[in-house]
Amino acid sequence: MSDCFYKAVFFNKLSFDEINCLDHIREEKLFKKGEIISNEGDEIKQFIYMKKGLVKIHKHGLDGRERIISIAKPIDFFGLLTIFSDTQYKYSITAIEESRFCMFDVKAFKETILLNANFAMMLIGRMSQVADGIIKTRFDIGGKNLRGRIAYILMYFANDVYMNNSFELPLSRKEIAELIDMTTENVIRILSEFNKDNIIRLDGKSIEITNVELLRKINLAG
Amino acid sequence: MSDCFYKAVFFNKLSFDEINCLDHIREEKLFKKGEIISNEGDEIKQFIYMKKGLVKIHKHGLDGRERIISIAKPIDFFGLLTIFSDTQYKYSITAIEESRFCMFDVKAFKETILLNANFAMMLIGRMSQVADGIIKTRFDIGGKNLRGRIAYILMYFANDVYMNNSFELPLSRKEIAELIDMTTENVIRILSEFNKDNIIRLDGKSIEITNVELLRKINLAG
DNA sequence: CGCGGCTTTGATGTTCATCAAGTAAAGTGG
DNA sequence: CCACTTTACTTGATGAACATCAAAGCCGCG
User: Fold this and answer.
1) CA B47 to CA B43: how far, in whole Å?
2) What is the distance between the alpha carbons of residues B84 and A130, in angstroms, rounded to a whole number?
3) Residue whose C-alpha is closest to residue A38's, from A123, A122, A99
4) Cβ contact A124–B67 (<8 Å)
5) A110, B121: Cβ pair inside 8 Å?
6) What is the tens place of the pLDDT at every residue in A2-25?
7) pLDDT tens profile B77-121
8) How far is B37 from chain A (nearest CA, A)?
9) Is CB count within 10 Å lower at the N or C end of chain A?
10) How far apart (Å, rounded) are the C-alpha atoms in residues A36 and A94?
């Protein structure tokens, strides 16, 4: 296994950008919007590294209804290190934008760690960050009323995903509901309400946040 | 060699030199019920290993109200590996039963990891498990109505903490409310209701689950 | 072209938080 | 050790927030 891989990881710490150097073990795959990367219950055979894109991590609730645990972009994707504690995926992963991945054989990946404690250390740090991020998000959402949750999720897409106050929603209304624990009808109602109050400009999936300050207040108040 | 954690948990993964090294820098502490182990915002100076007891991991919500993220017993406590991604505690930790800890200097602990990839691997696995556990719990609770949440938390204490259908609640009604996102009044109301319906026998903080099957149904139905 | 899933709006009812008010228990200081 | 203060617990009444149900238009896709 090429040492280029470790170099990339180790020196860049947060980025696997030079991962292309790894040829024999790695396999690159492209998933279109809506395509499933893995299914809850599937056996884990590969370590997956996301190079580009956006996915949803989701799972069936006890009542059968689908629910979304988290949205992940490349840098957030370390969290799925279930590979170290389980042999099956606990969650399903589905692309919500075109996404590119590198897949590595799990065994080889684990061996890599055993040969390089610095690399392991970096992994531990990233995992810890990602897990804390998810826990904090669920914590925050749990404490909000519905208007606050919608405000939160709009700000999340604007600030953390697209770095822009105008963006195309990558989720359907139904999926937003699954993500922030509410009903589709209320997602629609509150988005319309925000639109009417000129907090956002809404056109199908196109959203522009026009009153950032007010949205922030609603987020904090809820 | 001390009876502290590595014997039980890490024995195979550490060399004698490393163990002795850690042993010299370890400090053992006892906390009584209600005593604070660490405060949100404090600088992290030590890696903490819980030998015995029960703690709550908690944090102030945006609205100022206190909320409990998780209850942890010794084996669950690895999750607090914020030490690898941050220099300050993100959460407060308070003993809810008398608890005993070993504290290690963080730097020495990290150096140990760098010298021992097996140890690192074990840590990664444990972290991943613990984080997944917390995420799953929040996920489950989020999908339940109030009766379902109370059922869930009663079953949690009976099955995962005390391994017995009779136990003393380690939390006040208010703290239960903080843990499962509801109001103190409703915690009381639903506990009383379960008592009247002979699902539990309630006397202050003493609880006995008398109708396990029905409680399970309420948990799943919610 | 028609079916199924997504979106939207309105009407209705349930669940739950809030408010109020009182009792019990547990600290606290003289 | 007792008076005092605070905190925990409890019950009922009220209203707000939210889910559910129903119906209809829309769009994409086979």
Assistant:
1) 12
2) 12
3) A99
4) no
5) yes
6) 444 544 454 444 344 444 444 456
7) 765 667 888 899 999 999 999 999 888 888 888 888 888 888 788
8) 19
9) N
10) 4
CB B216 within 8 A of CB B155: yes
CB within 8 Å: A67 and B132: no
Residue A207 C-alpha, separation from nearest chain B C-alpha, in angstroms: 26
- If you measure CA to CA, which chain A residue comes closest to B84? A125
Q: Is B135 within 8 Å of A138 when comparing Cβ atoms?
A: yes
Let me know if A84 is exposed, middle or buried by CB neighbors in 10 A (0-12, 13-18, 19+).
buried
Q: If you average pLDDT over residues A31-47, what whole number do you get?
A: 91
Cβ of B136 near strand D (distance < 7 A): no
Distance (Å) from the alpha carbon of A193 to chain B's nearest alpha carbon: 24
Q: Which residues of B touch A82 (CB under 8 A)?
A: 128, 132
- Residue A105's alpha-carbon distances to A25, A45, A54, A86, B167, in angstroms, are 7, 6, 22, 15, 46
- Rounded to whole angstroms, the Cα distance separating B99 from B94 reads 10
User: Is the CB of A128 less than 8 angstroms away from the CB of B85?
Assistant: yes
Name the pTM for this structure.
Answer: 0.90
pLDDT at A110: 83
Question: Which among A85, A123, A139 is the nearest to B67, CB-wise?
Answer: A139
Distance CA(A26)–CA(A108), nearest Å, equals 10
Residue range A88-140, pLDDT digits in tens? 998 999 999 999 888 888 888 888 778 777 778 888 888 888 888 999 999 99
Residue A101: strand, helix, or coil:
strand
Q: At what angle do helices A146-155 and A212-221 cross, to 10 degrees?
A: 130
Distances (CA, A) of A219 to A145, A212, B139: 9, 10, 21
CA pair distance B120, B169, nearest whole angstrom: 36
B150, B214 contact by CB (below 8 A) = no
A183 Cβ within 7 A of any nucleic strand D atom = yes
Tokens of A54: 């956006």
Q: What is the DSSP string of B95-158?
A: EEEEEEEEEEEHHHHHHHHHH-HHHHHHHHHHHHHHHHHHHHHHHHHHT--HHHHHHHHHHHII
CA–CA distance, B190 with B177 (Å, rounded to integer): 11
B75 to chain A, any CB pair closer than 8 A? The answer is: no
